[in-house]
């Protein structure tokens, strides 16, 4: 069985916005006040509490523009927060809806056709593991099943090299 890890938005991306940077459309993020559940922070992967300030902005979780580089609105806390680090555990934001879209992407950052499925939350780790075991699938995105907004990324856990583990042949 392939081990997986859930990855939040990179801290460098969040820090750029917290320090006045622009989003994927070259706009400044908008500030809003959370009214409670429904505003998941893509950096700490927790919901932004009612009454807390948040930034909403266009985000493209791909390295370059290309036809499959989906861009959409996401949220982060307005004040810096700690990046999600319990990578092997289903993040808290993925427990707020009954299901999410889980979809595989290739090394070329294009959708691998036939991989996208609306997946019940309890099946996300299993389905992501199945996708990552397929040839041609390099990583997986989890997206909102209602609005298609990016939630987080899932990768294979890289096995340590034999020399690093102390194992000898």
TrEMBL record:
<protein>
    <recommendedName>
        <fullName>DUF1203 domain-containing protein</fullName>
    </recommendedName>
</protein>
<dbReference type="Pfam" id="PF06718">
    <property type="entry name" value="DUF1203"/>
</dbReference>
<dbReference type="InterPro" id="IPR009593">
    <property type="entry name" value="DUF1203"/>
</dbReference>
């Amino acid at each position: 069985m392939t081990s997986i890890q859930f990855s939040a938005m990179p801290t460098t991306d969040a820090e750029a916005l917290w320090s006045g940077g622009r989003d994927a459309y070259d706009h400044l993020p908008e500030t809003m006040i959370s009214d409670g559940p429904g505003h998941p922070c893509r950096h700490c992967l927790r919901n932004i509490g009612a009454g807390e300030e948040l930034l909403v902005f266009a985000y493209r979780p791909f390295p370059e523009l290309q036809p499959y580089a989906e861009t959409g609105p996401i949220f982060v806390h307005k004040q810096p927060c700690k990046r999600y680090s319990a990578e092997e555990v289903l993040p808290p934001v993925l427990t707020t809806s009954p299901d999410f879209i889980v979809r595989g992407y290739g090394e070329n950052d294009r959708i691998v056709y036939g991989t996208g499925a609306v997946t019940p939350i309890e099946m996300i780790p299993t389905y992501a593991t199945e996708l990552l075991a397929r040839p041609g699938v390099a990583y997986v995105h989890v997206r909102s099943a209602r609005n298609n907004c990016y939630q987080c990324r899932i990768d294979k856990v890289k096995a340590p090299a034999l020399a690093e583990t102390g194992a000898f042949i």
